Write a sequence for this structure.
């Protein structure tokens, strides 16, 4: 009988190990480490993400209960205290760098044959407990962080991730994001900044966003509306205010823009703004509607990965866990794209979880075999 790796091993084989080793050496992550190398820490945290371990205590308990399968998956036995110390002290930059390297690998594989380059930008809040108040306090009662994301909706893949405290404005984080020249950026009101729009416009990017209700537009041309498009109420070209105040000039004030009013439900009209003066109005409206894809991405990640229960409360530990959660997403997305039998990513992730330490090809996880899932006594769920 031919050798078959465990499901966990098949998913994690796509990790760029050479890049990880370079990052570990660059940041001195394993200097003085006697137990649980950074590579082993990554594998343990990925296992915790995919298997939905709910607490730091669960992780060693699950690994110890499945010792034989653990060994063949490259997973070490680890004490709770060792894991806690590693989360607090290992450089989070190693995991952020690994995510960036993995994203580069994924986009090359998943984006083949895709024409238009659409980028969705948004953020999602991540609730933390009061033990993180020293770095993530939002108000007297609330502590949290934000995950700022750029998503490719056509390849269904993450392109960029930044983690900030919850009180950092979205536009502040966006200004640190790399700009891809010629891409289409779809934004919401959280990114309402004329100077940043001007940077995107200067890079030949197409901008699709919303106008605030009180922003005036000096109309110079009204375009005809196709009769078959019932939701579009107007299509106009004009200029934004030339000055923001007596002392400040609007960087977008000399750029012709386009406002398309779309009725999304009776009595509610969106003012969609774009610097594309030629595309059909229905195409621009459809691009803005694609913002829903990033909301679905956030929902998927929060439902299928561990972003509700954190193993540590320090900024370093939280950053590591969020980065590893996104690494898990990209690995699952790559593994899902490499097989043809399971169409739904959600179903694929559930089957990976159910077969996480079993030796079964990824495209045969639906089939019932002689091996039955093992009951996880620490969680009360099937692994």
């Amino acid at each position: 009988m031919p050798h078959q790796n465990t499901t966990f091993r098949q998913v994690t084989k796509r990790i760029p190990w050479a890049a990880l080793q370079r990052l570990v050496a660059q940041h001195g992550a394993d200097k003085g480490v006697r137990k649980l190398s950074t590579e082993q820490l990554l594998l343990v945290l990925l296992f915790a993400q995919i298997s939905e371990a709910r607490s730091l205590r669960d992780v060693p308990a699950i690994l110890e209960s499945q010792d034989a399968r653990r060994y063949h998956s490259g997973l070490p036995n680890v004490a709770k205290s060792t894991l806690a110390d590693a989360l607090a002290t290992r450089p989070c930059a190693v995991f952020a760098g690994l995510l960036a390297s993995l994203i580069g690998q994924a986009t090359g594989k998943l984006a083949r044959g895709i024409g238009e380059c659409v980028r969705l930008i948004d953020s999602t809040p991540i609730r933390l407990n009061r033990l993180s108040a020293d770095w993530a306090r939002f108000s007297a009662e609330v502590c949290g962080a934000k995950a700022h994301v750029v998503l490719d909706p056509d390849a269904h893949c993450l392109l960029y991730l930044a983690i900030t405290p919850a009180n950092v404005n979205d536009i502040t984080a966006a200004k640190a994001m790399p700009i891809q020249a010629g891409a289409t950026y779809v934004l919401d009101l959280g990114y309402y900044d004329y100077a940043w729009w001007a940077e995107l416009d200067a890079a030949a990017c197409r901008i699709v966003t919303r106008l605030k209700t009180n922003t005036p537009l000096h109309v110079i041309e009204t375009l005809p509306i196709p009769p078959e498009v019932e939701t579009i109420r107007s299509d106009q070209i004009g200029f934004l205010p030339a000055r923001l105040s007596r002392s400040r000039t609007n960087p977008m004030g000399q750029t012709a823009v386009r406002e398309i009013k779309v009725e999304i439900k009776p009595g509610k009209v969106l003012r969609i703004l774009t610097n594309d003066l030629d595309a059909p109005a229905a195409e621009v409206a459809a691009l803005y509607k694609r913002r829903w894809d990033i909301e679905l991405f956030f929902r998927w990640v929060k439902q299928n990965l561990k972003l509700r229960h954190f193993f540590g409360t320090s900024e370093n530990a939280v950053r590591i866990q969020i980065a590893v959660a996104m690494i898990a997403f990209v690995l699952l997305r790559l593994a899902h794209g490499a097989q043809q039998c399971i169409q739904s990513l959600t179903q694929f992730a559930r089957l990976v979880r159910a077969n996480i330490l079993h030796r079964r090809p990824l495209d045969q996880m639906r089939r019932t075999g002689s091996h039955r899932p093992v009951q996880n006594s620490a969680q009360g769920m099937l692994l």
